[in-house]
Amino acid sequence: MIAARAGIRLVQHRIAALRRAVVGEVEDTNRLIYHVLRGGVLVSVAVLLFGFILVGAKSAALPDHSVPTRSLIPQLVEFTPAGFLSLGVLVLIATPMVRVLLSLLSVLVLIATPMVRVLLSLLSFAEDRDRTYVLMTGIVLVNLLISVFLLA
Amino acid sequence: MSPVEVLLLLALAAFFAGLGGSYLGIGGGVFLVPFMTLVLAVDIKRAIATSLIGVIATSSGAASVYVRDHLTNLRLAMFLEVATTIGAITGALVALLVPAVFLYVAFGAVVLYAAATMVRVRETAKERSYRGGAEPALVKRLNLSSVYFDQEDQAVYRYRVDRPGAGFGVSAAAGLFSGLLGVGGGFIKVPAMNILMRVPMKAAVATSNFMIGVTAAASAFIYYSQGLVDPSLAAMVIIGVFTGTNLGTRLLVRAKAANVRFVFAIFLAVLGIAMAVRALGFSGVV
Questions:
Q1: Cβ atoms < 10 Å from Cβ of B162
Q2: Which residues 74-133 of chain B have a CB within 8 Å of chain A?
Q3: How far apart are CA B6 and CA B4, in angstroms?
Q4: What ipTM score was computed for the predicted complex, to two decimals?
Q5: Could you tell me how far CA A51 lies from the centroid of its own chain?
Q6: Contact pairs from chain A to chain B, CB under 8 Å
Q7: Facing A147 at nearest CB: one of B70, B89, B228
Q8: Predicted TM-score (pTM) of this structure
Q9: Are B28 and B20 in contact, with CB atoms under 8 Å apart?
Q10: CB contact (8 A) between residue B217 and residue A114
Q11: Is B161 on the interface with A (CB under 8 A)?
Q12: Helix (H, G, I), strand (E, B), or coil: what is residue B130?
């Protein structure tokens, strides 16, 4: 009698553990996507505000169009030759153009956020060996890459 | 209007777009583009590019919360994103080629349609309940049916997805409009999922919101590469939308959905008519 009860308890224990594992797995994927989407927006806003803190809101005759990605990072580095050394130096030498470049960098981070999410979904489906969904997510990723390289 | 006034007004508009958009499952572009072109006199193609940035921010901000709360149907989203991204790329390429007047006319029509669907969409618990019967073969194969937890009446609802093919087609059209007009296309996707595919309203809103980010990203970079993203406009939109969605996902949970929807619909109708009038003015009729 006691043995039977212990057996039932053991089975109940196993089932509870299994359930936790399943819930945990779903939770993991959702949590990861949550953090990627949330994190992407936060990084984007941080980059944007950093530009405004460095330069302030003062305006000059600045470009009102997007700078090609190819020259965005080189230009940022060029504007901040000693910038990697100290924040104080960075504030002193930052021109309004730096704010423009950081605003555009912020835009690019934002555009990249959903793309990173799709890549993570692809990995998650691959881990589950879900071929159909790996294929579909792959198509979406290829579409996104086409949009990046089509007219660039 | 001075440039500073334009930027402050845009930040304010983006705030409301983020606030309303996060709650209604739309990107808010359907409001931002007419506001930028009609009130702030921004060129329509630049307005579309800027709006897409706002749409991505709204979607990412709101979608993250819905995913965490298990409202989003990730499989259904992935399936329909195949259609929306192809549509979005096509739409962006068309938008770059056609004259502005075409975009005004298309926008007027789409916005009026959005206003009409906003007023109509309602849902009762009975409609949410599970219906028996065989699943379509594709739905079974792709395992699209799912469950979600409804905070409102503390119940778990199981639902069966219907008409996957039709939903896929409508999503492609939604993607096309997204790339063409700088909107998220949520006002097409939400009714399509809810009425056509029989997905419960809350799951449809969450899933639509989730797809909008990827859809907008697929066309946003095309606009970016053509130099159409204005850094100062984009900066205002990002800041406005960010604060709006943060407040929206927190505060509006308690508001009455029907009321928000109704006000938004009237607002959209006015903007749609204004866009149409503007388009007629362009072609010399008015």
A1: 18
A2: 74-75, 78-79, 81-82, 85-86, 88-89, 92-93
A3: 5
A4: 0.86
A5: 19
A6: 160
A7: B89
A8: 0.84
A9: yes
A10: yes
A11: no
A12: coil
Degrees, nearest 5: CA angle B74-B179-A141: 45
Q: Which amino acid is at B19?
A: L
pLDDT tens per residue across span B195-249: 788 888 788 888 988 999 999 999 999 999 999 999 999 999 999 999 998 887 7
pLDDT digits (tens, 9 = 90+) for A41-64: 999 999 999 888 887 766 666 777
CA dihedral over B201, B202, B207, B213, signed as positive or negative: positive
Chain B residues 208-237 with a CB less than 8 Å from chain A: 213-214, 216-222, 224-232, 234-235
| Inter-chain touch A113–B232, beta carbons under 8 Å | no
Q: What is the pLDDT of residues B104-114, one digit of tens each?
A: 888 888 888 87
Residue A126's CB is within 10 A of a number of other CB atoms, namely 14
Is-contact A125 B77, C-beta < 8 A?
no
Q: Are the beta carbons of B81 and A140 closer than 8 angstroms?
A: yes
C-alpha to C-alpha distances, A35 to A50, A127, B65, B159, B269, nearest whole angstrom: 21, 19, 10, 27, 36
Note whether A117 contacts B: Cβ–Cβ < 8 A.
yes
Which residue do the tokens 């993203």 mark?
B229
Cα separation, B65 vs B80, in Å, equals: 20
End-to-end CA separation in angstroms for chain B = 25
Bridge pairing between strands B146-150 and B155-159 = antiparallel
Label residue A1 by pLDDT band (50, 70, 90).
low
Interface check for B62 against chain A (CB to CB < 8 A): the answer is no
Residues 46-75 of A with CB under 8 A from B: 48-49, 51-52, 59, 62-66, 68-69
Q: Do A144 and B60 touch (CB under 8 A)?
A: no
CA-to-CA separations, B161 to A78, B139, B166, in angstroms, rounded? 54, 7, 11
